[in-house]
Amino acid sequence: QGQEKLSCNPKKENGTHVVLCELGNPMKAGARITVDMELSVSGLEDVGDAITFHLQLRSKNSPSPTNASVTVTVPVEAEAEMELRGNSLPATTVLPTSWQGVEGSRRLEDHGIKVEHIYELHNKGPGTVSGVTLSLAVPHLLGDHVLLYLLELGTTGGMSCSHHPALNPAQV
Description:
Layout: E1 7-13, E2 16-22, E3 50-56, E4 69-75, E5 80-89, E6 116-126, E7 141-142, E8 145-146
Antiparallel strand pairs: 1-2, 3-4, 5-6, 7-8
Main location: membrane
GO molecular function, one term: integrin binding
Organism: Melanocharis versteri (Fan-tailed berrypecker)
């Protein structure tokens, strides 16, 4: 007839997370109860594309192997928006038309003007992300001439990085 809040208690049973809810005590024979449950589950980043709940109705008064049970599978969709920000220091670089690199030199200034490119990858949420791959294609040759001498590549914030073999070929 009316609506009541259930008293539910989480616990672990045989390595499984279980939530026990008391539906009524005593309950009259033939009683019909409808239960709406809202579950909040965290840590779903690596569960795949669905999570399964096993629901079972058990009576303390008359244990029976035919206790009603049902399995409910709920699809999981992760949602996160990534944002890439980039910056070059200096923002503009102009090389003189007569400039030539010095072959065999190991000094930075003999290979051109230093330009630093900084990229920041941000998760704008709402979910967390893992296993993100960012690929940057940087033009380092123009025909047979060096356009940008790629010196080094670094990361911060616990990321790993792999690079193209053309990185610092003259070991400057």
